[in-house]
Design a protein that fits this description.
269 residues; D-Maltodextrin-Binding Protein, domain 2; 6-stranded mixed beta sheet; 5-stranded mixed beta sheet
Amino acid sequence: MKKTIAIVLTLVLCLSLFAGCGKKADDKVITVAASPTPHAEILKVAAEVLAKDGWTLQITEYADYVVPNNVVEDGEIDANYFQHQPYLDTFNAENGTHLVSVASIHYEPFGIYAGTKSAIADLAEGDKVAIPNDGSNRARGLLLLEAQGIITLKEGVGMEATVLDIVDNPLNLEIVEMEAAQIANVRDSVALAVINGNYALQAGLNAGTDALAVEDAASISATTYANILVVKEGNENTEKTLALKKALLSQEVKDYINNTYSGAVVPIF
């Protein structure tokens, strides 16, 4: 009987030890949802940084923009990295979720690309300049044109800018608004084209090497549309969140972005 009790106690002790070890292992695993490019690629570098401190980063890639937020809201995954603040704000408002940004990591800059004119200085009276026709992208395009001295916008319009806010257009340029995804395809019919970073990449263009001008890292557009690390509200200062944030804001990650994407992806830290 005593032998049986001893065996049982030993088994209980072993199970407790295994459970404790499992819990400790789980405590050193961080899960994150991300878009494949460039987010998951950047996270793989962050994983190497985390590993030095004993952390394991598990990256799950998603092709859509809904599930990555839902799995963080539900607590299935610790964090996500795929979106900018305006998208997050809209998602929270429309879905009743409680997600918050804890760090700004990178942005994908808009660029002005050559069409029938090979330089901004070559613009002539009445030339056509193509920009996106949807709200935030329209504003980004107009702000980039203003930053290059091509037009002047009404003071203070910021990310709400429309063509109606142009107060000075010295060359009487025709600002042609069209679907963002189509602009790269019509460059032979406009003098210049303002193209989103992702659509430029799809068209074989790189903002860092092909654009005549790009958004400045300190511009309102860059800071507004920086891609962010997101967690559920209340988890902003957990050990896991702070470790992942530190890794993503590391010099190793910054160097990787700068050396890999040639200006098509720009670190914001």
